[in-house]
Amino acid sequence: MSQTPEQAVPTDHPTQGAGAARRTPRLRDVLDVAEELWPAGLAEDWDAVGLVAGRRDAEVRTVHFAVDPVRAVVEEACGAGADLLITHHPLLLRPVNSVEADGFKGEVVHRLIESGCALLTAHTNGDSAVGGVNDVLTEILGIEDAEPLSPAPDGLGEEGLGRVGTLPQGTTLGDFAATVFSVLPSVAGGVRVAGDRDGFVRRVALCGGAGDGLLQAARAAEADVFVTADLRHHPASEAREAVRDGRPYLIDVSHFASEWLWLPAAAQALDRALADRGFEAEVAVSGINTDPWDFVITPGR
Question: Of 164-168, 185-189, 266-270, which range is least confident?
Answer without folding.
Answer: 185-189
